[in-house]
Amino acid sequence: MLAVFRALSLRSFALLWSGQTISSFGDSLFTIALAWWVLQKTGSATAMGIVLVCSTLPMLAFLLIGGVAVDRLPRLRLMLGSDLLGGIVVLVIALLAYQQTLALWEVFVMSALFGVAQAFFYPAYAAIIPDLVPLETLPSANSLRSVSLQVAQIVGPGVAALIITFGGVSLAFALDGLSFLISAACLMAISQAPTQKPQLAEAQEAQEAQEAQEEQEGSVLRDVREGIGVVLASPWLWLTLVIACVSTIFLSGPDEAVTPLLVKQRFGAQVGVYALFTTLLALGSILAALWLGRFKRLRRRGWLTYGAWMTLGLMLMVTGLPIPLAAVSVAFFIQGVALTTLGLAWVNSLQEFVPANQLGRVNSIDLLVSSGLTPVGYALAGVAADHFGAPLVFIVGGATGAVVIALGLLHPAIRAVD
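^ thats the sequence. predicted structure below, dont judge the formating
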């Protein structure tokens, strides 16, 4: 089991992971504090929805540009700039909240700035890990990244509740701002030593020489086209993105938008049941990450990715069935295992098979395509749950999603991914 921690023996990755772990914990504080502030200020769920839209739309709008920037500019500097922007935004929110002058429109604007920063940060974070660790350490590094996110989701909400109770939302905001600054300090401390992979260094040098020769010819639009070309040249890649785009309507909608209603309709308005499901989901994710991080290389990733993906859909369907609370709890735990297995198999495949000088663009295209219809899924799931009940939405959504995902295994390129 200790093998999962081997990536931490590399100083650069240890600094990156430590900073992002602290930042993830700060983000969990911010999420709870923001939701509580909006509830107190407006008493409206619609207002919170608008806040989420204000951060999501700018992120989607700038993702392709962010992916190009990640492949053109130093990735550490982009991450550093994103962290500093995020830290400044949150500290401004904290100050205004402390002075009791924070207005809803200011939260909308600052959420949009967050979205822009995330459009550059997320592709850079995914693309920089192969720069810092050798190939056989990628499963460990990606697993540790997943573990830190899940631990923050388990610990953060309870800590946030205590902080808000005794110090107010402004203190929770301020601590999140501080976490961004700590993450930025860790990024500045990362050594600029040569990459772990000689072949990667050679590819980057060749790319820089080519770009210098082409001068102004290298436009952003051309870079985006090149990224799309990489995706279209790999059937396993473009087909998986298409399936993700469609299946997210059936899976993300029920899972993220309708779960509270399911708890209310099936088990009564018990926040403790909802917390139990969330905790079990995170625990399943952590255990899967620790297990998979032991391996130097994940094998049969086509079957592993799609098997976990279908399991996710089937467990979503089981959640809607008229079964006891204990059985639903087990389904949520298995969902966590499947979700992390899917994510780690997929990200390891991207990092290994996509050329290093295209990884930022491909990551941004991945996030844009796979998340593009998520708002549609939220809306459809919400309307359907109001008219037909939450359990039916889970049953139909999970079953339909599993069928859509299973279609991908009909293509030999998917089954052949090792």
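The domain at 1-213 is CATH 1.20.1250.20 (Growth Hormone; Chain: A;).
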